[in-house]
Automatic annotation (TrEMBL):
Catalyzes the epimerization of the C3' and C5'positions of dTDP-6-deoxy-D-xylo-4-hexulose, forming dTDP-6-deoxy-L-lyxo-4-hexulose. The lineage of its organism: Bacteria, Pseudomonadati, Pseudomonadota, Alphaproteobacteria, Rhodobacterales. One of its GO terms (biological process) is dTDP-rhamnose biosynthetic process. It comes from Roseicyclus mahoneyensis. This is dTDP-4-dehydrorhamnose 3,5-epimerase. The active site is at residues 62, 132. Its EC number is 5.1.3.13.
Amino acid sequence: MIFHPLKLHGAFRIALNPREDTRGFFARFFCTEEFRAQGLLPEIAQINTSFSRAAGTVRGLHFQRPPAADSKVVRCLRGAIRDVIVDLRARSPQFGQWEAVDLTAENRDMVYVPPGFAHGFQTLLPDTELLYLHGAAYSPAHEGGVAHDDPELGIDWALPVANLSPRDAALPRLHDLEPLAT
Ligand SMILES: Cc1cn([C@H]2C[C@H](O)[C@@H](COP(=O)(O)OP(=O)(O)O[C@H]3O[C@@H](C)C(=O)[C@@H](O)[C@H]3O)O2)c(=O)[nH]c1=O
């Protein structure tokens, strides 16, 4: 696995390091030891998947508050997404900044989202399927989010925004959020 630090401290784009032969390739998808060596949290409490029919679909921006704060590793298995992370760590000099990475079935890249970040994405193609490794179990009592269209964040979505869930359409703005203690 090849770890590329993102602009937002503690977040990474992770590329596969494939061993190729005439059949195709073999590669590590996840490795506890390599995660630890990079200072990333290696716990996996839950593995989730999502499927979105239409291009332009936006999900997010979501997080879980302590003590259920989770790290996420996000990979696009089919289709393509623009993955977006927002630093909400109370003590971070980058608080409120966002960053985007395109994840596609072809590039097979992943994003490591540390605890204290909000995460969301927009599908760039129809029939897009994601896989998530979550560092903590789902806890409805601790979930929170921030509006994908908060002008203070100014996220530059690739396509017109489609198919927001009712929950996502009602998420608060950054200004009305309590920063995340991590
Ligand atoms: C995550 C999760 C959701 N649910 C329920 C809650 C809800 O009724 C239904 C669908 O959940 P959501 O609407 O939150 O699905 P979705 O909007 O796709 O939520 C996801 O968005 C992206 C951006 C993320 O980063 C993920 O961590 C997750 O928050 O599934 C579970 O029962 N278990 C779970 O582990």
